[in-house]
């Protein structure tokens, strides 16, 4: 079952917190693929070569099919896992988080580490913002040139998302529709174009 929607990071950025004299820097970024996530992690590690730890977590796939986490030398399960849990609990997908820790001399204990690593990811999500992407079905409306302008205006005025326009012997207008909206949309299209438009269903996409 595919997710009907997911949340992702609005933009790349860094959020810093100080906990018991340790500095925690959470670097967050959207990542379309696992490779992008790994490249981001490598970049952050290079930027902080003297840090005590660079722990990471990422979730790729609308259904969270790829999940990875690393404690990077912290006690097992006290860093990467709570970071990952914060991402999945907030329904965040296609995102990578790296928490860079500069040790300040005070031991936090396992519970303190779990709260620190998970908490700083949550704070970073709040600080940088997230966007919700919903699942849509792509559909192509084919109309003749005479009706194309009116059909486009009608689509937009009814709040439908026009994704693409292609001009050929006819005009193809690609729209993104919620799956549940398809039957009503077919009826509306037949009515608004007096049955002259054809509708071809395509694949799926996620969009804001």
TrEMBL record:
Transmembrane segments: none annotated. Residues 141-195 form the UPF0029 domain. It comes from the Bacteria. Residues 21-125 form the Impact N-terminal domain. Coiled coil: none annotated. Belongs to the IMPACT family. This is YigZ family protein. It comes from Streptomyces cirratus.
């Amino acid at each position: 079952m595919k997710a009907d929607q997911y949340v992702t990071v609005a933009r790349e950025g860094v959020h810093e917190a100080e906990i018991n004299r340790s500095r925690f820097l959470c670097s967050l970024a959207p990542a379309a693929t696992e490779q992008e996530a790994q490249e981001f992690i490598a970049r952050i590690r290079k930027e902080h070569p003297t840090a005590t730890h660079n722990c990471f977590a990422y979730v790729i796939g609308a259904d969270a099919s790829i999940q990875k986490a690393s404690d990077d030398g912290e006690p097992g399960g006290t860093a990467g896992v709570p970071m990952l849990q914060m991402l999945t609990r907030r329904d965040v997908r296609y995102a990578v988080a790296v928490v860079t820790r500069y040790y300040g001399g005070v031991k936090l204990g396992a519970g303190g580490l779990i709260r620190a690593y998970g908490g700083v990811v949550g704070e970073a999500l709040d600080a940088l913002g997230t966007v919700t992407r919903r699942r849509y079905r792509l559909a192509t409306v084919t109309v003749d040139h005479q009706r194309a302008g009116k059909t486009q205006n009608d689509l937009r005025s009814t709040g439908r998302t026009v994704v693409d326009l292609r001009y050929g012997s006819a005009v193809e207008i690609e729209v993104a529709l919620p799956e549940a909206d398809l039957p009503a949309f077919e009826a509306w299209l037949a009515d608004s174009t007096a049955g002259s438009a054809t509708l071809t269903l395509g694949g799926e996409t996620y969009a804001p």
